Amino acid sequence: MRRSEINICIERGIDFFEALSFKLPPFAYYTLDDWSGMRGEGGMEEIYDLKLGWDITTFGTGEFEREGLLLFTLRNGISGSAEYPKPYAEKIMMVLERQVTPCHFHWRKREDIINRGGGNLVMEVWRAGGDDNLSDEPFSLVVDGVRRSFSPGERLVLSPGESVCFEPYSAHRFYGEPGFGPVMVGEVSSVNDDASDNCFIQECERFDTVEEDEAPRFLLGNDYEKFLGGSI
User: Fold this and answer.
1) pLDDT digits over 195-214, tens only?
2) Domain 3-228 is found in CATH 2.60.120.10
3) All structural domains of the chain with their residue ranges
4) Which residues on adjacent β-strands are paired with residue 168?
5) Strand intervals (E) in the chain
6) From the DSSP assignment, how many helices (H) and strands (E) are in the chain?
7) What pLDDT score does 38 carry?
8) What share of the chain is helix, strand, coil (3-state, %, to 5)?
9) pTM across the whole model
10) Across the beta sheet with 101-105, what order do the strands follow?
């Protein structure tokens, strides 16, 4: 993914969240110069070490509007860590109409996916088996506190204010419903570990290689080490 595309996506994300009155934390707006100017001051290790902040992916396709996702990680922890003991995580996301996040599940993470505003979020849902493949058996999910039965691949449409709880091995594919505009999606979960707790049904790249065709206006969480060195 080109850096110029990433810069545009983040600026659009900032405008989108602002339009829906979702307030991002101060570090969402830090430029590379801001980050560089804070080096040596200390106190920001949690942001750096946990890679809090912006996260943009095309899942290796290079076609963001067809298959991709813009996320901002607000808080997280590390399981079993004395330094970062939070047992929970939170993200906010922008999902475009027809923009697909491929089918995946988590072995350990339990998460609530919440439509925080904008359009409708379409979730296609399955249960994964112990062999990490999709099961053809019916299953249940809790939707806004009510346990409901689902068939494999059934569509669950979340309107603003609605949510679903995905337990471990709950597989899902999602996108914004055509005709309703982009969706602001919240995620409240147990600790998030993208390195070892994502299972995509069809193999894909969770983090894209970045082509540096222009200077970064903002940094991704994965950019911190590259542009700031070993610590901040």
Assistant:
1) 999 999 999 999 999 999 99
2) yes
3) 3-228
4) none
5) 53-57, 69-75, 88-95, 101-105, 111-118, 121-127, 139-143, 146-150, 154-158, 163-166, 170-176, 183-190, 199-200
6) 4, 13
7) 84
8) 20, 35, 45
9) 0.96
10) 154-158, 121-127, 170-176, 101-105, 199-200
